[in-house]
């Protein structure tokens, strides 16, 4: 491959000038950035490259924060559950939390801003019947009911930024001062953030891009008494709460938030919870405030002649890039961490910015770059999964973060990244702004809709969890597949119906979650609209517990369309005769085995018309059913793999009644894919594995050819 340059951002650090110049040449980098814990020498800033400088709006200003501790950021927390053994019970509400990170707020009246709840009944304990003690950090209930459980919802000040805390512990920063986060909703903090930025811009003339990391409120990350992560929710809004915010919310929305609206029984409104109207109101309230204040900072940056970039992480809460207020900010760019195809698309598809950038893995930290470890393994896995998505929608730039001096010690890694950067530029230069061929249009249906585009079933930015990998595989598979994907909410369908250009709706998740829908399926308009849409020719793919909510004799509310339901024990007396799987089916034509992940138990066929594709252990795991002119497919789960990507693609085409078009542009080998760009008459034949592959390729006109691809090869071909 011909050596190319540009569109790559290189991390650097002090006393590393010669090596930085060498690495710039090796990787074709045209931008240099610092990282948390590093600084750039003046000589490095003078290199022929754009200079990104990390800027913390609401942390790393301890000289100010220490003088205004009353303006620290705040968060609502909930104590551990405690059983009352008598009418008087004392709860040590800070048990299990890290005192170096959190300090209870006794500046504001606990009787007004805290809440004690009888968790056995859900009843709020009258503030007159409990006392809060600042000295020993306890709440004593005076009128408890024996053997009821109680919790305290309480406000704390966040006195250590959680990202700096994580980096501090990971890199053993010793006595380095703890960054104190302050709340820009407060008067002095709001003033200093603008004043300091103006002076900082004057003091940093070599900076070309101000990399806001990010703006004001950190995703929810709370540590336990051992200094380890206790609760992490990349989507959490808990750290945006304060007394000032509560008062402002009441003034704007006309009603007051309860602590429980934030604490949410200790679930803290994770993205898996079906959002309440109150919580959605609060999110909108925060979105608007953050966008308005961030716009002022971006305007200041632009007035100085520099670009404003936002890191989609750390303090990103309130800057949701698919939210209705995001455009107001006026950012030039967004950069985010790429964990795979789904996170690549999450960044690449962001609207209202001039360019996007993906920060690839691994991070150049000592937990990966240590003697005896091979960082190429992680880099290769990260690149191959993200590359699939990039061939559908590329980011404009790629880069890395951390300590360049660590990566420099691994020459094999340096060589591998040199190849990646060249391959990225070739992809970008070929297909940027070129619409790829798509065979079907798919709508992912859940409670969040467009707001959380490419973000379903994530907990902490694409980390693996037992409860989610069987669903996260759906969007990971789709991120690099020849399909057009949109995200719609239940409310969207209730208000507007199903868009006419949608071929297939996917509903995937466990019952009761925001992703399956739970009680949302009690809405008569929703259920009848979708039933009618399927009956008139639409396709539906349900994964896990789709449309699940026990009601009027069904667990799956779309059971008659799906042709299956789940046995909860209520109908064990009813025999279930339909257990024979078909010998062959279009959906499973490429399958040699099945992997449904954690799978789903006790799903059974409703009648002989259900097309059972996989049946084992006395239950259905894969099936299809005709419903009027439409089709509905059921899957018990879908972890990400090349095999399951092919299975899903076949299911989508079958549900859409387009199976005759499945091999229009196609690679027969499941380890390979074909991406087609009609407007430029080019196709990319891709080997997604690290071994040589042979495949039959179909060229869109029914003609087939045999192709042999080297490990991870992309072969570009023109067609007429």
From TrEMBL:
Stretches assigned to the Lacto-N-biose phosphorylase C-terminal domain: 665-716
Any one Pfam family match given in the protein's UniProt record, by short name: LBP_C
GO molecular function, one term: 1,4-alpha-oligoglucan phosphorylase activity
Domain of life: Bacteria
SUPFAM superfamilies (UniProt xref): Class I glutamine amidotransferase-like
Residue ranges constituting the Lacto-N-biose phosphorylase central domain according to the UniProt record: 441-659
Limits of the Lacto-N-biose phosphorylase-like N-terminal TIM barrel domain: 6-438
Stored InterPro entries: Class_I_gatase-like (IPR029062), Glyco_hydro_b (IPR013780), Ig-like_fold (IPR013783), Lact_bio_phlase-like_N (IPR035080), Lacto-N-biose_phosphorylase (IPR012711), LBP_C (IPR035356), LBP_M (IPR035363)
Ranges in coiled-coil conformation: none
Protein name in UniProt: 1,3-beta-galactosyl-N-acetylhexosamine phosphorylase
Annotated organism of origin: Carnobacterium iners
């Amino acid at each position: 491959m011909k050596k190319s340059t540009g569109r790559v951002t290189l991390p650097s650090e002090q006393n590393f000038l010669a090596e930085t110049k060498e690495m710039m040449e090796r990787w074709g980098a045209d931008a240099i950035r610092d990282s948390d814990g590093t600084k750039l020498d003046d000589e490095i800033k003078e290199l022929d490259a754009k200079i990104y400088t990390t800027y913390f709006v609401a942390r790393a200003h301890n000289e100010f924060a220490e003088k205004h501790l009353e303006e620290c950021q705040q968060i609502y927390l909930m104590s551990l559950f405690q059983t009352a053994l008598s009418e008087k019970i004392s709860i040590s509400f800070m048990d299990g939390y890290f005192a170096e990170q959190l300090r209870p707020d006794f500046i504001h009246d606990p009787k007004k801003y805290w809440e004690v709840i009888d968790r056995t009944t859900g009843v709020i304990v009258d503030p007159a019947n409990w006392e809060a003690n600042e000295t020993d950090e306890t709440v004593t209930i005076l009128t408890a009911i024996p053997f009821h459980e109680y919790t305290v919802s309480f406000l704390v000040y966040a006195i250590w930024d959680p990202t700096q805390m994580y980096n501090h512990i990971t890199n053993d920063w010793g006595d380095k001062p703890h960054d104190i986060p302050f709340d820009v909703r407060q008067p002095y903090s709001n003033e200093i953030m603008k004043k300091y930025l103006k002076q900082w811009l004057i003091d940093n003339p070599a900076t070309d891009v101000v990399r806001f990391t990010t703006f004001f409120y950190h995703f929810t990350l709370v540590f336990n008494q051992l200094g380890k992560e206790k609760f992490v929710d990349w989507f959490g809004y808990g750290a945006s709460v304060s007394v000032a915010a509560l008062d402002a919310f009441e003034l704007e929305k006309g009603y007051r938030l309860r602590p429980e609206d934030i604490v949410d029984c200790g679930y803290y409104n994770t993205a898996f919870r079906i959002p309440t109207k109150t919580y959605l109101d609060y999110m909108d309230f925060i979105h608007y405030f953050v966008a308005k204040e961030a716009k002022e900072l971006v305007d200041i940056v632009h007035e100085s002649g520099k670009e404003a970039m936002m890191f989609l992480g750390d303090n990103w809460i309130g800057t949701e890039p698919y939210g209705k207020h995001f455009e107001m900010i006026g950012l030039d760019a967004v950069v985010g961490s790429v964990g795979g195809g789904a996170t690549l698309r999450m960044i690449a598809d962001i609207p209202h910015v001039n360019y996007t950038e993906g920060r690839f893995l691994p991070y150049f930290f000592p937990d990966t770059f240590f003697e005896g470890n091979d960082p190429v393994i992680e880099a290769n896995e990260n690149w191959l999964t993200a590359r699939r998505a990039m061939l559908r929608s590329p980011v404009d730039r790629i880069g890395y973060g951390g300590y360049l001096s660590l990566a420099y010690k691994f020459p094999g890694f340096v060589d591998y990244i040199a190849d990646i950067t060249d391959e990225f530029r070739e992809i970008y230069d070929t297909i940027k702004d070129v619409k790829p061929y798509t065979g079907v249009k798919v709508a992912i249906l859940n409670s969040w809709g467009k707001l959380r585009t490419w973000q379903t079933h994530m907990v902490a930015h694409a980390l693996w969890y037992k409860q989610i990998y069987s669903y996260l595989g759906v969007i990971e598979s789709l991120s690099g597949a020849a399909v057009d994907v949109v995200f719609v909410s239940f409310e969207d369908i209730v208000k507007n119906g199903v868009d006419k250009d949608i071929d297939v709706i996917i509903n995937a998740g466990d019952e009761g979650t925001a992703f399956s829908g739970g009680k949302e399926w009690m809405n008569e308009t929703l259920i009848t609209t979708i039933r009618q849409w399927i009956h008139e020719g639409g396709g539906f793919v349900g994964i896990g517990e789709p449309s699940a909510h026990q009601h009027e004799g069904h667990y799956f509310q779309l059971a008659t369309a799906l042709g299956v339901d789940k046995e909860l024990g209520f109908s064990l007396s009813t025999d279930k005769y339909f257990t024979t799987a078909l010998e062959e089916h279009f959906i499973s034509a490429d399958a040699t085995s099945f992997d449904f992940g954690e799978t789903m138990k006790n799903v059974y066929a409703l009648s002989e018309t259900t097309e059972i594709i996989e049946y084992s252990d006395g239950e259905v795991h894969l099936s299809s059913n005709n419903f009027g002119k439409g089709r509905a497919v059921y899957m018990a789960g879908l972890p990400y793999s090349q095999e399951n990507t092919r299975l899903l693609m076949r299911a989508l085409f079958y549900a859409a009644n387009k199976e005759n078009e499945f091999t229009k542009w196609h690679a027969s080998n499941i380890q390979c894919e074909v991406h087609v760009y009609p407007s430029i008459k080019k196709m990319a034949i891709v080997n997604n594995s690290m071994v040589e592959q042979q495949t039959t390729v179909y060229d869109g006109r029914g003609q087939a050819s045999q192709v042999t691809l080297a490990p991870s090869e992309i072969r570009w071909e023109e067609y007429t």
